[in-house]
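#structure-requests
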Amino acid sequence: MVALPFEGIDPPDGRVTFDVDVAGISGAVERTMALLFQSVRCAGEDDRDSFRLALTEALNNVVEHSRHPESEPVFIHVGHSGRSAWACVEDAGVVLPPHLLGLSTIAPKEPPTDTLELLPEGGWGWTLIRASVHRLDHTRRAGRNFTLLMRHFDGAAKAADRSSGAA
């Protein structure tokens, strides 16, 4: 397995490949979720749904905006540590502008809050991803983007333990 370029992230437990195609997003997300959550049993349904939403939106961004070469697959590396699960989307698309992830010191323009009609139709994907995970990191190495999505599942353990019959 590949070592990922993020501090505090162990080598991945597995990897899913994904062809750059809108029709393939759903299948890639479900394969990733199945691989990841066979090891992470402490996650409740709401946590899994939040993680699924973030991953779906991240893959949609690769398909719709990255200009990733169609001849190359996207890799989704997955892993877990304790009560946290993560997925790292690796693609060969264009350089991602830092302000999209909120990792830049340049603050993005605040949307108007006084009227819904003034809000833009698109551009909410990264906001949705940030709201659905506890850690969002991005880096670029050797012409490839690495976007890390991590969610902690501390509150879900009791519900999972009760449903499995554990005390």
